[in-house]
Amino acid sequence: MLDIQDLRAEIAGKEILKGLSLRVNAGEVHAIMGPNGAGKSTLGYVLGGRPGYTPTGGSVTFAGADLLEMDPHARAAAGLFLGFQYPVEIPGISNVQFLREALNSQRRARGEAPLSGGEFLKLARAQADALGMDQEMLKRPVNVGFSGGEKKRNEMVQMGILGPKLAILDETDSGLDIDALKAVGEGINRIMRAPDKAVLLITHYQRLLDYVQPDFVHVLDAGRITRTGGPELAHQLEREGYGVAA
Fold first, then answer.
1. Which residues of the chain have pLDDT under 50?
2. pLDDT of residue 16
3. Taxonomically, which superkingdom (predicted)?
4. Closest by alpha carbon to 70, among 127, 124, 109?
């Protein structure tokens, strides 16, 4: 599904990714761990097409297409979802407005008929219920006044509505209490655990992996993957730190 070969990328002229290679197959969950400044968020932003994060070498293939040649909206329509460590607030636009337009924009790009207002509300309410989110929050401006846990639940609702093929989740566990962590972990499993989907889960800590067990754990350090293992590697890193991956 996702094939990254010798990817290099820079921010404001500074090279951050320095020859990163990674392959993610359909049906797999991969966790990316590593110290601060290693390039974890940069990897997510480059894959999502965020401006200012400039690929300078290598290749990325997503579902058979050259991802780096696609505009961000085309990547989303093709089935890529990028979850942020700090979801932004969008005053003046309700969740319902935002999500309906996002979903129907993607459907039109794929040649599918847009959902009617009633069809969309049924879908949105079902996803909110599944995440334990008050449906009244669907009417509120996107993330405005939300707690950290509410923002992450809201992001999972967005993911459930959009139904991506590949979810890249950047420190989704950041700022979550125990209950919210469990709810978000269960949401990831419910939405993305399928033979035709995949997850790239970027995290500092092992705790989210108690709920979303990865098939592979990778250590990203100084812009490269330096070690790969199974779920046991995350436990080892938690005990011993990233020095064990050197």
1. 245
2. 97
3. Bacteria
4. 109
Residue 62 has what pLDDT? 96
Nearest to 221 by CA among 202, 245, 238, 197: 245
Look at the chain and count its residues. Answer: 246
Closest CA to 5 of 54, 49, 67: 67
Task: For tokens 């974890």, name the residue.
Answer: 40
Which pLDDT belongs to residue 80?
97
User: What CA–CA distances, in Å, run from 31 to 123, 202, 215, 217, 231?
Assistant: 29, 6, 8, 5, 9
Indicate if the alpha-carbon torsion angle 188, 189, 190, 193 is positive or negative.
positive
Query: Under 8 Å CB-to-CB from 138, ≥6 apart: which residues?
Result: 94, 95, 96, 99, 124, 125, 128, 157
Contact call for residues 26 and 12 (beta carbons, < 8 A): no
Q: How confident is the model over 163-197, as pLDDT tens digits? A: 999 999 998 887 788 888 888 899 999 999 999 99
CB of 72 closer than 8 Å to CB of 65: no
pTM of the model: 0.91
C-alpha to C-alpha distances, 4 to 24, 25, 61, 71, 221, nearest whole angstrom: 9, 11, 7, 17, 16
Can you read off the two tokens belonging to residue 159? 């993911």
Q: Output the pLDDT for position 244.
A: 58
Architecture of domain 2-90+164-245 in this structure: 3-Layer(aba) Sandwich (3.40)
For the chain, give every domain's residue range: 2-90+164-245
Q: Output the six-digit token pair for 94.
A: 């309700």
pLDDT given for residue 162 in this prediction: 95
Distances (CA, A) of 124 to 82, 102, 217: 19, 12, 32
